[in-house]
Design brief:
Elements (H helix, E strand, L loop, with lengths): L1 E6 L2 E8 L2 H17 L9 E8 L3 H19 L1 E11 L2 E10 L13 E2 L5 E5 L2 E9 L1
Antiparallel strand pairs: 1-2, 2-8, 3-5, 4-5, 6-8, 7-8
Helix pairs in contact: 1-2
């Protein structure tokens, strides 16, 4: 589960999940919900693999979402489905989507960066929760 919330001139994303893997996958969905609005308009036709090194879940989240944002910025890839495996030295993720096509997709927000402001990942009684803020 994730929710997008307003934060001064930025937007925030709060994610709750039973595991770190699901947390990172849901953060990917939330990120592209901010970018595209309705992620259902994105067809999961192409898969991209990502490797992120690190052991701290906070920095893994920042680096994961920054990598996904870079894929949009450089390749104009929109994603909607994510599978993530967290291991001892980082994470491996697969994102499925398609290149942006203005005839098919609408964009909701331009994200300049995922920020460190209020960045948090912590355990809860139900699993994990994360908060991140994006600069729009």
């Amino acid at each position: 589960m994730h929710e997008v919330f307003e934060h001064t001139a930025d937007l925030g994303l709060r994610v709750q999940a039973p595991s770190l893997e699901v947390l990172f996958a849901e953060a990917g969905v939330g990120l592209f919900e901010i970018i595209a609005g309705d992620v259902q308009q994105i067809r999961p036709r192409v898969a991209r693999s990502f490797e992120v090194a690190g052991t701290d879940p906070v920095w893994l989240l920042l680096d994961w979402t920054t990598e996904l944002l870079a894929a949009f910025g450089v390749e104009k890839m929109l994603f909607r489905e994510f599978a993530v495996t967290v291991h001892a030295t980082g994470l491996r993720g697969t994102a499925r989507g398609e290149p942006y096509d203005p005839a098919i997709h609408t964009l909701a927000h331009e994200i300049k960066a995922v920020t460190q402001h209020e960045l948090d990942v912590h355990r809860t009684a139900a699993g994990w929760e994360a908060t991140l803020i994006v600069d729009i």
